[in-house]
């Protein structure tokens, strides 16, 4: 009697949604959606747990602290020495990883998938302002990093070299919808359209410096509605707090 083999990729969408709904552990949800394109498509109609995880790098593994379940999960990376590795940025399940003497690469913390980036000797691994955006389905990505001198570099999927944006001195950078938003050393915001390496004309933030104390770490953030924020972190003797500044020029 011959055995009937089931094709897991052909499960009906309602059944798949039921499966995803029972995956209460986030890492199982994200791993399951990588089974095939049909599973990924159905997973986009489900809502996973929407809170950030804390990621700790051990010698040869990644420790993921899930605050919703108050639990720590360990994912081994025996091929890497993570204590010598710098995580420069993150997006969804992906990390932008750098290590002295080696090229930058993207690493999926759940599936261990790795995407190597072009070589660029001028990039700063430590204390670099960096940002990452990646589409999990198509693997399209955009990466931007600064050099020690503040020169801004970017690359996207398909590029064989990094693009140097010499006109901008970058202190902090973020990305949204095809544009880089750069907080410059003169405390202004420049907007760079990556489709043509052009500074956006009519940028309302240009020539409007934001007078913020340079002694504190900062990051530039764009909300889902497109509002631009500067996040400043203050460190006290026994605590740390954050000040969020809305970039309004009115």
TrEMBL record:
SUPFAM superfamilies: NHL repeat
Domain KIB1-4 beta-propeller: 64-233
InterPro entries for the chain: F-box_BR-signaling, KIB1-4_b-propeller
Highest taxon of source: Eukaryota
Protein name per the record: (rape) hypothetical protein
């Amino acid at each position: 009697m011959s055995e009937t083999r089931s094709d897991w990729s052909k499960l009906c969408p309602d059944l798949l949604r039921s499966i995803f709904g029972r995956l209460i552990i986030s890492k199982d949800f994200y791993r399951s959606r990588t089974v095939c394109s049909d599973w990924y498509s159905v997973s986009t109609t489900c809502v996973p747990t929407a809170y950030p995880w804390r990621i700790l790098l051990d010698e040869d593994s990644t420790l993921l602290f899930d605050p919703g379940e108050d639990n720590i999960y360990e994912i081994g990376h025996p091929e890497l020495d993570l204590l010598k590795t710098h995580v420069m940025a993150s997006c969804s399940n992906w990390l932008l990883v750098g290590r002295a003497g080696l090229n930058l690469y993207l690493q999926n913390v759940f599936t261990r998938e790795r995407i190597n980036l072009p070589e660029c000797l001028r990039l700063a691994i430590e204390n670099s302002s960096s940002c990452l955006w990646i589409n999990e389905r198509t693997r399209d990505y955009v990466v931007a990093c600064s050099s020690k001198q503040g020169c801004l570099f970017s690359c996207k999927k398909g590029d064989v070299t990094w693009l140097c944006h010499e006109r901008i001195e970058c202190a902090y950078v973020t990305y949204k919808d095809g544009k880089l938003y750069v907080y410059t050393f003169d405390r202004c915001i420049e907007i760079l359209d990556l489709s043509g390496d052009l500074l956006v004309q009519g940028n309302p933030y240009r020539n409007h410096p934001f007078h913020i104390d340079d002694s504190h770490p900062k990051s530039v953030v764009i909300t889902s509605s497109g509002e631009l924020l500067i996040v400043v972190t203050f460190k006290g003797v026994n605590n740390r707090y954050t000040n969020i500044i809305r970039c309004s020029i009115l």
